[in-house]
Amino acid sequence: SYAHLQNANCYNNASKDTIKQEIIDNGAIDIAMYYDKSYVKTTSLNGTSYYQNLYSGSEATSNANHCVTIVGWNDNY
Q1: Whole-angstrom distance, CA of residue 68 vs CA of residue 58
Q2: Where are the alpha helices (DSSP H) in 1-77?
Q3: pLDDT tens digits, residue range 24-36?
Q4: Is 12 helix (H, G, I), strand (E, B) or coil?
Q5: Which of 61, 69, 72 is nearest to 33 (CA)?
Q6: What is the pTM of this model?
């Protein structure tokens, strides 16, 4: 192994407020998520929204298939 992760905070089903605070405190947060293109809801000049309700809780965690880094937040989007 050539890498070792240290000082990581892990959250299961973190609230929006917790995610936003982590971005403020640390500049970015990595999340694991389940992605399926059938859940893409809206594409506009502002971007694309995605929402899936197939999995939640521990089932969402075990079915996650993408890792995403969130670097900003806009409550108005």
Answers
A1: 18
A2: 16-26, 57-63
A3: 998 899 888 888 8
A4: coil
A5: 61
A6: 0.65
